[in-house]
Predict the 3D structure of the following.
Amino acid sequence: MSLESNASNCRAKEKFLQIFEGRKFEMLRYDTIPSEKPDWYDHDQFLQGQDFYRRFSVGILFSKFMSLVLGLFFPRLLRPLMFTRRSERPLDALRRYTATGMHVFLWYTRDPWDPDSKSRKSLQEVTTMHRHIARMGETTQGRQKIQEAMANMDTDYLGAVEEALHCFQEDTSKLQVPDSEFFACLHSQLKEEEEAMELPTLSQFDLALTQMGFFGAPLLYPHRVGIHGATERDWEGFIMFWRTMGYLLGIDDKYNLCQDTVAETRELLQVCCGYFSWQVHVDCSLAATFMAFTVVEGHRKLNQGLRLKPLIVYASTIYDIKMEKTRKSMTWHEWFCYMKIWRFLRYGWNSDSAAADEQQFLHSEHSLKLGLAHN
Ligand code: HEM
């Protein structure tokens, strides 16, 4: 690592530590979302962020979906989702995440500062939901609901879920995480505090990690999620958009993942990815796999091409996480689904580049496995 990149990595780690401090603080700072704009707000950049969404909505939405599935492997995000018991069965999960999609669509297309806009109403509704969950999580009744959700698992799926979990655990146990000592130390600190019940159910740190799910993959690996040809101005706009959404949803500026510049935000996201890898390395659970399976099964009602293993393998590849055992365990049908995601996101809807790259694909390891390679 060069001196310069070493220095930027240290800076990003320091910033991450500051965000990690947010684990001690409630995620909600207000009952009503703020009406005053923060000093850093730039309306032109915000509009640029919304325009960026209009042009790249498919990649942005699909990457959000993949991050959601991966995000279930963060126990702190999984637990609140389990105790609301709104995503235990595939159709419930589909309804719940379609609702999320509708909210996010309103944020991307309306003005959140206009007191009568649908975006503002939606942000207020979501804040109220979060507040309710934060309160519920602190009660014994809330904790019991998690046990109930586990007991209520659909046993029809249990075999498939356990088989997938076995593969995931074999892969995640072999993960080589850069800076692993740094993350191990933070992780054990967080576990101890959780066991001593010293942390709020929904914290500022949790909000920041969730915020990453909405914009992290497009910003770090645009080509892997189907975003081709974005400009620096686009990235500035996208960051301004998510910085504003974070602010409106209650993230204190100190804990907002979106920084002043694109480069700083990317550096910080890299550290967050390391933390995420460490997290799945130590905590790949049956509950998380079950919920991920349910979410994917639900969405299969909309798109038959979705399957858990191909989605996890593709989503992990985005973040450079190798899932060899899972990859090798996929059936022909799952390989086909993987190939569809891969082709769709890498080449999207640009037919010229798709035709050229298809040739390359036909000689790749995936096509050998599928028996498609040309002689
Ligand atoms: C920037 C961060 C976040 C964003 C943008 C966000 C977005 C949303 C949206 C759009 C909804 C409405 C979904 C619906 O109508 O069903 C929602 C609800 C919810 N959110 Fe968040 N959220 C964030 C952070 C979090 C965090 C950190 C947690 C938990 C640790 C969380 C847990 C929930 C839960 C449990 C619900 C209620 C819906 C359900 O019952 O499943 N959210 N969130």
Remarks:
- The radius of gyration is 20 Å.
